[in-house]
Amino acid sequence: METAQETSFVFPLNVVENSGDHAHSTKADHNLSPFKLEGAEESHVTHCQEDDMTGMEGVENTAKQAGENDLCLPCKVCGDKSSGFHYGVMACEGCKGFFRRSIQKKIDYKCHFSGNCAIERINRNRCQHCRFKKCLAVGMSKESVRIGRYSKRVKQSNMDEIKRLSSKPETAAEREARERHEMEIYTLSQAVLQAHNLTCEYTKEKVDALLQQQDSIMMRLNAGEDLNIPPTVDYSKWKPEERSNSKVFAWKIFCEAIMPCTQHVVEFAKCLPGFLTLQQEDQMTLLKQGFFEVWMIYLSPVMLSEERLILLGRDNVFARDFLARMETPDLWRHIFEFATGIHQLRLSDTEVALFAAITIMSGDRGGIKESKQVEDLQEKFLECLRREISRREVKDNHLFAKVLMKMPLLCSTST
Ligand SMILES: [Zn+2]
Ligand SMILES: [Zn+2]
């Protein structure tokens, strides 16, 4: 019952008695309802003609059932009459079913037009690709299809939306402006994620592989095999005097090891919408000063373990006691603390990518010429991250703030 209740947001007019869970639809809620209460007594009829998933969605209370005339909130995807909140968004039965099927069957649609078809009630079946994209852009959540529930936070924001829309319905122009903005933010998030997937060696998938490799190396070490770690680098090309100064030597090896990552961060930045429009000097400044911070964000998932080893890459194994040779215990303590903090936030790839983009786009770096332009770009990425986090299933109301609070720590560590 719990699941059913959690799955679909129930309109506040709901006075259903078929589930104890509904008891919290209080009088106060009713007063806020944009819908009249007439007809509400019929509203416990489950509305699932195209769903077999009654277990998950059965207790949906639809506005339609509350009486045709009561309906004033349109489907956010196609503008048709909505039947309630589905997967986090006010949507019609058609779009609800379409979204669910798309996720469950993992369908990969293609657009046969230019990739930005307008989705309206009358043509919503014409392009599935663009309809699905719009579902995501207006905030439908894949997670809630899988998990079958969404957080109090999403419910609360749905309530707020009902209140807002019922006091002042959206005009056509407002709707258009909102849709354009939502699509812009969604497209930007996708572009940043794509840049991340193309360039980063520490996406979730790759990190999983690294950690597995780390486990197997640890097993071999524990079994007594001599794997000769840390010398993962060809010592022979180092001059004798370099080798004798263990600190300098350690730093050189370390810098060489993270060199490929520098290139990846540069590539990532270049793919960020807007980065190449900045003047070249500023691009350089942002990269120079931001690289180490981005590197720390990327590396967080492999840094936290108390293991003796750190895998910076497939063939890039560092023993932890090797790091001590760099004689910067404070730096490493900071890095490990930061990594642990980041790890606890359980960021998705999209969130990591946006966090990295925000870090690069810092208008307050020393020597930036056009800081306003950089800040404007950063603001967009911040909005993407805010949106991404607000749709999370994890009940963490302060996550956005927590992520941002990591930034000063980042800066202090990298300087
Ligand atoms: Zn619709
Ligand atoms: Zn299309």
Automatic annotation (TrEMBL):
Belongs to the nuclear hormone receptor family. NR1 subfamily. Signal peptide: none annotated. Residues 212-415 form the NR LBD domain. PANTHER family: ECDYSONE-INDUCED PROTEIN 75B, ISOFORM B (PTHR24082:SF473), NUCLEAR HORMONE RECEPTOR (PTHR24082). Pfam families: Hormone_recep, zf-C4. InterPro entries: NHR-like_dom_sf, Nucl_hrmn_rcpt_lig-bd, Nuclear_hormone_rcpt_NR1, Nuclear_hrmn_rcpt, ThyrH_rcpt, Znf_hrmn_rcpt, Znf_NHR/GATA. The lineage of its organism: Eukaryota, Metazoa, Echinodermata, Eleutherozoa, Asterozoa. It comes from the Eukaryota. The keyword Zinc-finger applies. GO terms for cellular component: nucleus. GO terms for molecular function: nuclear receptor activity; RNA polymerase II cis-regulatory region sequence-specific DNA binding; zinc ion binding. Keywords: DNA-binding, Metal-binding, Nucleus, Receptor, Transcription, Transcription regulation, Zinc, Zinc-finger. The keyword Ribonucleoprotein does not apply. This is Uncharacterized protein. GO terms for biological process: cell differentiation; hormone-mediated signaling pathway; negative regulation of transcription by RNA polymerase II; positive regulation of transcription by RNA polymerase II. Gene3D superfamilies: Erythroid Transcription Factor GATA-1, subunit A, Retinoid X Receptor. It comes from Patiria miniata (Bat star).
